[in-house]
Amino acid sequence: MWQATDRVPDLYRTTLKSALDMMNVCLGGVERMQGYQAGAIEEMRSGQGEMAKQLGTVDSLQDLQAAHAELARSQMARMTSYWGGLYAAGCQTQVEMLKEAQVKARVVADEIGLKLEAAPAGVAPFMSAMKLAVDAAHSTYAATVRATEEMVRVGTAQIDAANARAARQGNGKVKRAA
Question: What's the chain's Rg over C-alpha atoms?
Answer without folding.
Answer: 26
